[in-house]
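Quick question, first post here. What does this chain look like in 3D?
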Amino acid sequence: MKQTSTAISEVKSEGKVTAFFQRIGKRNLIIACSVLLIGAAVWLNWMLFSSPDTGDGYDGYDKPSGSVSDDLGGGSSTVDEDSYFSATQVSRQKARDEALEVLQAVVDNEDATEELKNEALASISQIADEIQKESDIESLITAKGFEQCVAVLNGDTACIVVKAESLQAAQIAQINAIVYEQTGITPSGITIIGK
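> Answer (accepted):
Ran it through. Tokens below.
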């Protein structure tokens, strides 16, 4: 008897829920849920990013980061710079590994045309050449006295990031000369950043 009454009450409650949704309407229910979600997102954004000092949530965005340190020892700045260079090199290697994996899959695919396979092989060769040139550039620049360096080649352009608070004209000329000797890229295509 209890099972029958439980089943009847479940059917009645399902009918009430269905009637409630029909009365409100699906569209209005979706609108109400959307408003609640937007409100929750605004509240969460306000809670996470508001500052007790100014309340604007943008404290520190206008201040330089990386090589500038607020403490007298400068220890945290060195850690940030070291992690920047390490993270950049790891990220670059990961992107290259993924690209090489895709290109190798094209080469190994039996259904791929010979032209597509040849293009993939040419791309693999170009990436290997860029890896070698970047490594040579980084080695030569660190040999010139820079503590750390990351070189990124992209066709006819090169971006060189060196660990330096400021760069002198002679240092920029040395870096330009090294990149030109290794790649043939002229100084107009070279971007040098001191980090």
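The radius of gyration is 30 Å.
Residues 50-77 have pLDDT under 50 and may be disordered.
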